[in-house]
Design brief:
This protein is an alpha+beta fold and 97 residues long. It has 3 helices and 4 strands; from the N terminus they run E-E-E-E-H-H-H. The protein is elongated, with a radius of gyration of 17 Å. The N and C termini lie far apart (41 Å).
Length: 97
């Protein structure tokens, strides 16, 4: 299982451990992934995902999964998130009509 966020595809970064004598050794900065189930209000459905803690804070700030997906550009989202966003847009269009 890869260490990637299911919504924004955030992955691990690389860098250096720097010792007191300034010797640099490689290291990985892993993403803080959380197993959560997010509810879509438009679809009335729950989605189980592994998302980064930073992304989870953004989802809460934007007002839930629907608000986050509608306010995020498609090129930033993963394929799974794009499919959910497409369903949400369709459900909102049907509800408005």
């Amino acid at each position: 299982m890869s260490r990637r966020c299911d919504l924004l595809d955030t992955g691990p970064m690389s860098g250096h451990n720097v010792s007191h004598s300034n010797i640099k050794t490689n290291r990985r900065f892993n993403v803080n992934l959380c197993n959560v189930s997010l509810t879509s209000d438009a679809l009335g459905q729950r989605f189980k995902m592994r998302i980064a803690a930073k992304t989870l804070r953004t989802v809460d700030f934007k007002g839930g999964l629907d608000g986050f997906l509608l306010g995020t550009k498609n090129h930033k989202l993963t394929d799974k998130a794009k499919k959910i966003k497409k369903q949400v847009v369709k459900a909102q269009a049907e509800a408005a009509a």
